[in-house]
Write a structure and sequence with these properties.
InterPro entries: AceGlu_kinase-like_sf. The protein is α+β, with helices and mostly antiparallel strands. The chain has one domain. 38% of the residues lie in helices and 12% in strands. It is built from 3 helices and 3 strands, in the order E-H-H-E-H-E.
């Protein structure tokens, strides 16, 4: 999406709000569906959203915690444990 605004971190609640806001725009697309975002909101689990087009991107993210994408951080989390 050429006009997409990047986010380093979002809570699941913020993600749901963004998806609902984007979904109201004609011809829009979102990188994660509303159902998946609601599941993250309910589960409050840490997640990353990244381009999975190349498996190396995923491996690098898992191994080094370095990636171009967004961390979904639980709403209630104060001191998050490391990703690995």
């Amino acid at each position: 999406m050429p006009n997409a605004e990047p986010f380093d971190e979002l809570t699941p609640s913020q993600l749901v709000f963004l998806i609902l806001d984007i979904d109201m725009t004609v011809g829009s697309s979102v990188p994660i569906g509303l159902h998946a975002a609601k599941m993250l909101q309910r589960a409050q689990c840490r997640t990353i959203v990244l381009n999975g087009g190349d498996p190396e991107y995923i491996l690098t993210a898992v191994r080094t915690d370095e990636f171009d994408g967004t961390k979904i951080i639980p709403d209630q989390e104060n001191d998050p444990p490391p990703w690995t």
